[in-house]
Task: structure prediction
Amino acid sequence: MKFLAKHIFKIIALILGGLALLGIVIMVIFWSKYRSELDLIQSIRAQKESTYLVLFQNTLELRPTGGYIGNFAELTLENGKIKDYTIYNTNVFDYGKPGIEAPEPYKRMLGIQEMQLRDANWAPNFPTTAQQIVDLYKLEGGTKDIAGVIAVNASVLPEIIKITGPVSIDSMEEELNSENILLALQYELNFGFLEKGISRDARKEPIKDLAFELDNKISKSSIFTLYLLGEMLLQQADQKQIILWSKDSNVQVKIAKLGWDGSINIDAQRDYLKVVDANLGALKTDYYMKRAIKKNVRECEDKICSTITITYNNTATNSSPLNTDYKSYTRVFLPRDAFVNTVIGVEKRPNEVDYTTAYNKKVAGFEIKVPFNSSKDIVIDYTMPKLDKYGLDIQKQSGIEGFDFTLDNQIDDKQINEFIQTDKNFDN
Result:
């Protein structure tokens, strides 16, 4: 998505440049609403010259921090303005380069023994992944001194289209809107060009055309539209669709304070839940996947008992060149002192549930398979020590829109139903 990346940079530059194109009244409103966010941006602008790695994560192929890293960029800023950038196809950058030993699920489900940059977002804690990315970038010959890492999910593109309006380009017959743009582009770049007799070298012409049309739309946008684009980007960061890490500890503190660091809350002293899916061998099937979580919590003797039901719904009615049965290696993060009694619904294999401890959490890892046009429930039953006051912290995985969540709290006789798009804390 090289040319789309260039376009997204222009929108990011709008914010990093202090929203200089906005009118004075709009700027005052923006400042009053997003003072902390703009303080972070100002800290980044204060760096005279710095280079960031920008990861473009394909959310149609979900990975722990958002999606498969199909492209990345070296982005150099000078006083908060874009000085230079180079965009790479990650597969090309990786080719023939050394890697590091791959995690066991990669070996088992993808058949790869070494992990390179395109697969490097395995750790669901983004600060860990970001440093891994920088290490692999250097191992594979990257020459820039990297100040930080920014991950931008493909799901940001439809949000741009919602504001700018649909786009028509000569190289594609259908009008591109927020509903069809991701799947239409994915099909065109993988298969559509062959059906039209277009050479592989020319297959990305639709991306060029789309970037040109979006550039035209934004350059002609009103002040209010620019305001909406800036506000949308900040909201996408709140929803974990844009996450950041900085080598500068002072900047990183500000990122973390805003909740934009994509970190696992290692200090949580209460009940805790984070579900992390990794699409390993399921093509672009995440486009069709819907998730829902139900949690029942109750007292049982001197402990708290919990039952979590994770429902996966593969809404595709049939397989296609882009989608198939959903195959994921899923990790469920629970309180460190949780004891898992049973996990039901996972794929059968020797030692079918992997139990580990990471980021001060108990982790249950397992394979799941959800055929197209079907659903599957994963049921996890666990206990944990009693709390003086029950509370629950939930962290949402980057890359998914959100999930329906139901809490049946029999300790305090409370029922909660929400659609969760970002991290949530439930207190009595």
In short: Residues 125 and 263 are 5 Å apart (CA to CA). Residues 14-28 have pLDDT under 50 and may be disordered. Residues 271-427 form a domain with the Immunoglobulin-like fold (CATH 2.60.40). The chain has two domains: 2-258, 271-427.
